[in-house]
Amino acid sequence: MSTIENKGRTVVVGLSGGVDSSVAALLLKQQGWNVVGLFMKNWEDDDDDEYCSSRQDLIDVMSVADTIGIDVEVVNFAKEYRERVFSIFLKEYQAGRTPNPDVLCNSEIKFKAFLDHALQMGADRIATGHYAGVREFGGRFQLLKAEDGTKDQSYFLHRLNQQQLSKTLFPLADIYKRDVRRMAEEAGLHVAVKKDSTGICFIGERPFKEFLMRYLPPKKGEIRCLDDDRVMGEHDGLTYHTLGQRKGLQIGGVKGGKGSESGEHEAWFVARKDMASNILYVVQGHDHPALLSDELKADQLAWISGEAPHTHWVYGAKTRYRQADAPCEIERIDADSCHIRFASPQWAVTPGQSVVVYESRVCLGGGVIL
User: N or C: which end of the chain has fewer CB within 10 A?
Assistant: First the structure.
């Protein structure tokens, strides 16, 4: 839309205190929108903790808003976050799976609780600093990969529906990260050099296992070699481990099992979790057959168009965020589950994580890996 078309129209931008959302707000202001910033407080269990950055983030948001010349509202979604995201996160870990809370946070908080709040404020649209795109095509809205493939975040947005996308703007869709920082610097935004946040939003930079132990108590058990059933060591709880995990096993330097041609210093990886017997199974070598899968099943399906894609067409899919699209076909789609087969084996396909399906640049949706 042109500056004239946007005049008098309100967009509420989710401001996090980082450079991406700040530049998103800046661009919308330049495009003639009436921009209102909204800072979401989603976690309050340990605001005084050394790993919690929410106070500094709010200070940064206020500074950016003052420079751009927009108003900011602070809203507390901590209750919604605990009920819709964190409680599910804990249940999944208790069941031995590895959930992706950022996917849930987007569908339940940033594009549901936040969207509802913004519409009540009288907004015409909401916007975020996500690296993704949205377009209307053939009477439906599509979620697109970002131009900057190294920053594309469509994987985390794959559960958005037509209503959510129809109200959403992604100003950074066609902009590279290096240019985002340059724009921020030219506009005098001090967050131009601010380090990107990493990890799960409510955990921050803190050690992950240490965080989980506060909510899910330890339950020690054996670590065994999957190849020959040797006892390799002891784990503190299956909850704290995920498939493909290498660090934190404390069994380095142990030789491989029967038939292993690998050297004694080759790394060990988590290959399976037996929840019934509380045994953690490991294998030696990154490319061990037990870590490779050429198919998967997924449930809790969410298709962006509202309709399931065709079966037996060639698509691309990711089973984890930082991964190239892997050629695949969807062999079967039931009421709420599907079966996907890959052209080549995929590494450490992990229950609880999301499989996300693409047709070129278009994100079709996905589900939770079983």
Answer: N
